[in-house]
Amino acid sequence: MSLQVSFRVVGLYCYFENLQLPTVGPTSTVKQVMDAIVLAKPAFNYTANAQFVDTMTYDFTSGSTTPYNSTKPVAPGMRALTDNLGNPSLIWQYYRSVTGSIDGTVCEIKLISSGQDSFTTRPLNAYDSYFGGVPANFQVSTYNLTWRLVQIQMTPARQQAFMQAKINKMDLAR
Hints:
It contains two helices and eight strands, in the order ββαββββββα. The protein is α+β, with helices and mostly antiparallel strands. The strands form two sheets. The protein has a five-stranded mixed beta sheet with strand order 2-1-8-6-7. Strands 3-4-5 form a three-stranded antiparallel beta sheet. A hairpin with a 2-residue loop joins strand 6 and strand 7. The termini are far apart. The model has no long low-confidence stretch (mean pLDDT 87).
């Protein structure tokens, strides 16, 4: 059975609605889902440094789907966004939700987790039950995965710790 995913990268005009991914399922990690998207849609790509996403790229063409809330015409071309540690820092953050229905009423439920686990370990469908979750009578139709590059203030000590974590993960990957 194929997993249906709507995928978006804010700022790149990258939007794939109801994409069928036959090689992954709801319990696959966010990374596994992204790798399946790269195979299905080669215009999208990303680079990661162990557990952290560094860069995302997308070649927007005249045949690309414009994101549903885009208000400006979009010119074709290659787009890229990269994280940056500085003052302020730009860090990739992902959001997950699920669209479906309860007794025929369509709704979207956010899959909330405390903290931002690495995309390499967080299952697409995981949530912390403390925050609610998906009711038993919810009929899933689509998982939604959205990435955005967020600007945050980091102290120099936190920047150093983040960079050290990246270095440590690179060393483990070798």
